[in-house]
Specification:
four-stranded parallel sheet; single chain; 6 helices; alpha/beta; 153 residues; 49% helix
């Protein structure tokens, strides 16, 4: 059964209505009256997150050897979470792990190596994580990737 397409005249009339509403300022009025979430709400939400108990939660963090991923891993380790650092470079991963252990000596940290530009390594890392752990409580997809050339898969 073919799905009926809307009449082109109908589409044109709807576009004209949208354009006239925009030109008359109806959309602008709505934008001007928009109020972002209150500061009190945002502060309260941040407090709830910062007091969350992360003890023995399994947190898998990609790109955890530097930048935001490293700081996130360190903060979660301070809260008692078990960290799985998914990194591409083993030397940098070990260095980052040792830095976290200097700050949080009793932190539980594991390293899984994975280059996200290689599908086989992604599958291998996923298999390694799923075979080692029953469940993942928190997944933080933080890794960065810059393709030097366009490839189709």
């Amino acid at each position: 059964m073919k799905r009926a397409l809307p009449n082109s005249y109908y589409l044109i009339s709807q576009l004209k209505i949208l354009a006239s509403n925009f030109l008359e300022g109806k959309f602008i009025k709505k934008i001007r009256n928009f109020e972002p979430l209150s500061l009190d709400y945002r502060v309260e939400k941040t407090k709830r997150i910062s007091t969350m108990d992360m003890t023995n939660k399994l947190c898998v963090i990609t790109g955890a050897n530097s930048g935001i991923g490293f700081e996130t891993a360190k903060a979660l380790a301070k809260k008692g979470a078990y960290i799985v650092m998914v990194c591409r470079n083993e030397d940098k991963a070990i260095k980052a792990k040792n830095q976290i252990l200097e700050t949080v000596p009793d932190a539980g940290i594991a390293i899984v190596l994975c280059d996200f530009s290689i599908q086989k390594e992604i599958r291998s890392a996923a298999d390694e994580i799923t075979s080692r752990y029953k469940k993942i409580d928190v997944l933080i997809n933080n890794h960065g990737f810059i393709a030097s050339e366009r490839n189709e898969t």
